[in-house]
């Protein structure tokens, strides 16, 4: 990304390059439609489908499963909206904005944690999508299945080949930069809806109407149900919790605050609930049609024994997975790594390094162990929750929605703290993580783990506000006022 921004003082080259610079006002051209389709691509994916469908497998009714999705999406959109404003206001990405709370050196810690989580999710999504690649190849080449008897690096040879092919598709999209990603999302997200609607029609036909689907009884009740309900909500939030942090990476391109607010409202809670509704209906239909819940969409497609259905369905799943993986799990670590080495890296190089590291997670070795996936996802949400709470608290309560943009690129500015580190932010983050995850390690407090994301956000935010006001006395009278007069960061822009 090129930038025409002119600073009053020279940005430190260790904190700045064109990909980390504020997006000029004339290049902020993403409309509400772009954000809607981007979110469609991020929520319409195999892992989201399987997680929503697995709620039926946990013993919930269709209505209870939908309630989990609705509650989690209401919470998510609220947190995402709160953290979207600063990105759209200043045109800055997450790795730069986080410097205001953690310091220019300290920011590397949450940035690298966020990058690590995103790369982990890249490997998960890439392996899930590669299953669709294998299904298509198996239709074309009958001998494909025989390669499953050959094992290498802990995986069958056909799985490794499928993964490699799918990895190359990601590399192709990344190499063409953010503009190609924006164009790709315009048609990738809606395509999956077409596949989902087709499967919904099949499920309703197989069940002889919606009535039987929604009459399937739940096997959970009382305290067991509520514990599972809130743990599932935390798990659903955990799938997209990392986006709460790096949503400025996307909203920095917004034409206005209204564009990002409306676009994300349509794209996340509305489309995620609709997608989950389709997943729940389809999974409930498989219980009636096959006697067991099938929440792996690739396995469901193979049950149809129809090459055309499998080919079209697999293609849709491939596009869906590339869509979510690039936007949710590559854009962020690409900026994160660029922030770490701004002199040597840019967006494309950072993205390619991210997907190379993703291979090292070897997802084929553990992906099918579904017994602990909800707990793992919840732990991810609990770890990132405190950082989200700190970011939101810093922008709205400590700095009152006003950042000194030039200081974010300086080692001697308003966010230097103690030689680039803000101890208060780290204390708040550690406290938030401890409270969020304590239920995993202390049996007597296990019930708290169902609320881990909420506890992490709340404790992180409250502790940070208290520590900052006690140690530094930040209040209305000494809120930091920006010294820059850049048009692109005008305080009046897009205020609502």
UniProtKB/TrEMBL annotation:
It is found in: Membrane. InterPro entries: NCS1 (IPR012681), Pur-cyt_permease (IPR001248), Uracil/uridine/allantoin_perm (IPR045225). It is a multi-pass membrane protein. The keyword Ribonucleoprotein does not apply. The chain crosses the membrane at residues 32-51, 63-82, 102-122, 184-205, 225-245, 266-290, 310-335, 347-367, 373-398, 425-445, 451-471. Gene3D superfamilies: Hydantoin permease. Keywords: Membrane, Transmembrane, Transmembrane helix. Belongs to the purine-cytosine permease (2.A.39) family. This is NCS1 family nucleobase:cation symporter-1. It comes from Alicyclobacillus fastidiosus. The lineage of its organism: Bacteria, Bacillati, Bacillota, Bacilli, Bacillales.
